[in-house]
Write a structure and sequence with these properties.
The chain is α/β, with parallel strands linked by helices. The protein has 17 helices and twelve strands. The protein folds into two domains: 15-263 and 353-376, Aldolase class I (TIM Barrel), CATH 3.20.20; 267-342, Orthogonal Bundle (Non-ribosomal Peptide Synthetase Peptidyl Carrier Protein, Chain A). Helices cover 41% and strands 13% of the residues. Strand 1 (10-12) and strand 2 form a beta hairpin. Helix 1 runs parallel beside helix 10, helix 7 runs parallel beside helix 8 (195-205) and helix 11 (267-285) packs across helix 12. The protein starts with 9 loop residues before the first strand and ends in a 9-residue tail after the last helix.
Length: 385
Amino acid sequence: MTTTTVAKGLSAGGLNIDPPVVLAPMAGITNRAFRRLCREAGAGLYVSEMVTSRALIERNDETLDMVTFAADENPRSVQLYGVDPQVMAQAVRIIVDEDRADHIDLNFGCPVPKVTRKGGGSALPWKQDLFRSIVRAVIAAANGKVPVSVKMRKGIDDEHLTYLDAGAAAAQEGVAWVALHGRTAAQMYGDTADWSAIARLKEQLAGYGTPVLGNGDIWTAADALRMMSETGADGVVVGRGCLGRPWLFGQLAAAFTGADIPADPHFDEVLRTLRRHAQLLCIDYGEIRGCRDMRKHMAWYLKGFSVKQQIRQSLGTVSTLAELDELIGQMNGDQEFNQVVGAGPRGRTSGGRRPTLPEGWLDSPFIDEVAAQNLLEAELSVSGG
């Protein structure tokens, strides 16, 4: 399949992201090992797992490891979470002063209850004054040395949309770009992403010259091209679509430059990628933890292929690379990629539930005493989501 060039590179603060493709931060997924596989497949920006500002300033060992990048990883991108402008600013100063990253993304899109119930993540942009204060404090702390972007959702639910006001505020404060997932917090990962919201945000921010990146339901390179065409977005952010498919970034790079899009790999090549992924995790975390972490990836890599149930079950409990090699040897690698199943939706698909929010959170779009108290408890001390 051949296409034409659809987008220019994304330039911000000395960075040139070409093609304008960003790996979405995903808890327990976008660690150094997975980012390496994606980088080797194609150019773009590959963001770390979510790092909490509180854990960073407390110099939590696991968090410091998350903001320690491979020597050849460039540019280095960190996603930062927090609800207190001053704590966020302090965390940014650590990142900048210690030269830990080349780009900072702010998390205002996480929909999970443990985050939203305290007013964080996708719940936070509802409080317009707090949202602006955080963005302003972070931009000031970065001091022009590191570009800052924002990732968010449409809002809390269809009755409490925040993306247009929040996007304008972020643009006014000087963010490098705004990325929008076309779902609300209530939708979680269900239903269909609303790409028309991305188009509306692009139109809203045109006067500021702030790029808009689209996120949601990009399962193939063709989906990315269609999103760009339908929304006018300046780039795409890919999350669940690359689970078990790090080679998707090579396909995206080809699509955005008008080259022939490489076919999805034969099963034997998929198995080699799976094995390399496991090895990289073991190098970073040791064999026991690395193999344990790899278990969650197995079903994503095997999706659409014929594998005996007993082997699938054993892969879910694999503890050593030797065990993994034995199981891989029992599989038939002579299988074509199943385009219908393998290139479809993957990862979490749950949705349609009422968001968990602090009591009275929706009473006002501004901070009051009750909201302020809730936010004192909203600073997470553990990174990764």
